[in-house]
Amino acid sequence: MSSPLPQNESSRLEVLRSFQVLQTSPEQAFDDIVRLATLICDAPIGKIGFVDQHRVWLKAKIGFVFDEIPRERSFSAHAILRPDPLVVPNPLADATFENSFLVTEIGVRFFAGVPLIASSHAAIGVLGVMDRVPHLLTAEQIDSLQILGRQIVHELDQRQTREAQSTHQTLHLAPRHRSVTILIIEGDGNLRNLLQRTLEGVGFSVFPAADGAEALHWSEHHEGTIEIVVSDIVTPEFNGLELSKRIRAARPETKLLFVTGFGDQFPELGELVKSGATILQKPFLPSELLRRVEDTLELR
Fold it and tell me: Which CATH number fits domain 9-165: 3.40.190.10, 3.30.450.40, 3.60.20.30, 3.40.50.2300?
């Protein structure tokens, strides 16, 4: 059993990791949502699962004890490929799901799940309910699942906002940083906005760019100094490494800070680190971003 990857898989994984939810402890808010979902759908098994690169990690669960499921044998890998709910009345009658991990390991004979879609339109996980006997759901039950799915995403957004606000309140940067200009290059709008809010919240001047062409425009037309370029390695229009080299050729004084979750796939980073570039691995907290920017400034 396997499933195709979403077309936006790289950016989808980045959005997931930006929420900092993987490997976190159980929380009452998410446990309550799963409990409500199972009660509404009259199902004894339920989960909130976030679809990582090779696994579905379970933030909340009822009816089983393991914490993760192989992605390639999961219902969730299929559920994130569609905007509407996935309902499988009887997996044993469906060749796509008959060898699913939950079917073979705990005897699931019914599955219904809704994708958890972030504001960037990336599906990061699934709220699902299951049973050991085949059955269907009513339109009202499916609608209720969708409402609860939106509540999960809202809770994640609120956590992210609280973390950013907490960081702004606890970190006190010197007034001189108000004159520091930072160019951000990030294709995902959700993550780009988070980076911009975090840096502007402590007084930096930030130019956000969605792709390489926009970043080069800022670099060529900004009359002052650009102290730091914060760039993902994988960016639209240009590879982030090539783009940063172009900017640095015109502005040799500019420092480079690469934000990436796939650093081991780019051996060129080693040479850039030797030349003064800084690397920040995803996932990271806003406070870690600010400290790394501070460290990069001090290198000057």
Answer: 3.30.450.40
